[in-house]
Amino acid sequence: MSTDLDQRLKEYEGKEAGGPEVGADPVNIPMIRHWCEAIGDQNPVYLDEAAAAASVHGGIIAPPVMLQAWVMRGIKSRPATGGSLTDELYRLLDAEGYTSVVATNCEQEYHRAVRPGDHLSTIATIESVSEEKTTALGVGRFVTNRIRYVDQHGEPVADTLFRILKFKPPAKPDATERPPRPRPAITQDNAFFFDGAKAGKLLIQKCASCGKLRHPPRPVCPHCRSLEWTAIEAAGRGTVYSFVVNHYPQVPAFDYPLPVGLIELEEGTRLVSDIVGIDPADVKIGLPVQVEFQRFDDELTLPVFRPV
Ligand code: ZN
C-alpha cells in the first residue's frame, strides 16, 4: 500500500539533483601521486612518465577508482555547486524520522581514461527512492543516485551509481535502567563455586590426591596432575594481596571508580573479587577483609569482600 509519503518521494525519481558539481582542480599529477602513495598503488602508468608513454595509454592516466577525488569538496568544505535537490530529499527523509545514513553500494563504469588536464564535473540524478524496507539496522528507504562524470567539453568519462540507506535509528535503551551484571561463563569445572555463592558459601577447589587448594577452578591439579578433587568451605577471611581501581572503560552494570582486589584467603589461596564498603582511595595492600555474598538477581550471587 502506498502512502502520501511514498507519493511525495516518487516525485523525486528521475529528476536532476542539481549541479553541475565542478571539481576544484583539473586532474593533476601531484594529486595522482598522493593518492597512489596513500593507497600503495605503484602502477607506473599512473606515476612514471616514460613507462606510461610506452604503454597502451601513451601517457600518464589517473587511477580510475580515484574518480570521486576530482570533484570532492575537501576537508575544508567549499560551498556545494550542486546536489540541492538531493539535499532537499534527505531533509524530507530526516523530517520523517529516517535520520541515520549508511552507504550500501557503489558501482562505477568508466568510459575513458582520465588524464592530467581533464577538468571533471558531475551531474547527479535521483534514480529511485524505495518504499520502506526492514533491514538489520532498522526500517529505512534506499536512495539511489546516478552520477555522471563529464570532462570540460561535456563529454562523459564515467557513470557511477551510489546507493544509501536512510533509516530510523533504533530507540536508545532507557539510561535510567541499569543493565544486569555480566554473567560468568559457567562450566562443569566451576559450577560448584557459583552454586556455593548462591548458598552463601565460599567454596575452594581442593586436590583429592595432594590436598593443595586451587583457584580459579580447573580440572587438573597443577601440582600432582590428579583429576580428583573436592572442595572446602573457606572461612572468608583474608587480606588484600593486590588491587586495581578501575575508572575506564565504564561498563554500565558497575559503579565507578571500581576497586577490584586479589584477595589472599587465610586458607592460602587467592581469588579476584570486588572490594565493597570502602572509599576506593582507602584500599591498601594488606587490608584485612571478610567475604560477604552480593545477590544481583535470581541467577547471580557473587562473593565480594568488605574491610573488617
Ligand atoms: Zn594435587
General description of the model:
This protein has 308 residues and is of the alpha+beta class. It folds into 2 domains: 4-27 and 62-167, Thiol Ester Dehydrase, Chain A, CATH 3.10.129.10; 191-307, OB fold (Dihydrolipoamide Acetyltransferase, E2P) (Beta Barrel), CATH 2.40.50.840. The chain is built from 6 helices and 14 strands. It has helices at residues 4-10, 29-39, 44-47, 49-54, 84-95, 191-198, and strands at 16-22, 100-110, 121-129, 133-135, 138-150, 156-167, 203-207, 213-214, 229-233, 237-246, 258-265, 270-274, 288-295, 301-307. Strands 1, 2, 3, 4, 5 and 6 form a 6-stranded antiparallel sheet that branches. Strands 12-11-10-13-14 form a 5-stranded antiparallel sheet. It has a 3-stranded antiparallel sheet with strand order 8-7-9. Strand 5 and strand 6 form a beta hairpin. The termini are far apart.
Topology:
Elements: H1 4-10, E1 16-22, H2 29-39, H3 44-47, H4 49-54, H5 84-95, E2 100-110, E3 121-129, E4 133-135, E5 138-150, E6 156-167, H6 191-198, E7 203-207, E8 213-214, E9 229-233, E10 237-246, E11 258-265, E12 270-274, E13 288-295, E14 301-307
Bound molecules: zinc ion (ZN).
Low-pLDDT stretches are none
**Quick one: biggest sheet?**
6 strands, antiparallel
CATH topology of the largest domain: Thiol Ester Dehydrase, Chain A
Distance linking N and C termini:
70 Å
Task: Work out the helix count.
Answer: 6
Oligomeric state of shown chains: single chain
Range of helix content: 10-25%
Mean pLDDT: 92
The 3D shape can be described as: elongated
Distinct small molecules bound, one entry per kind: zinc ion
Instruction: Please tally the β strands and state the result.
Output: 14
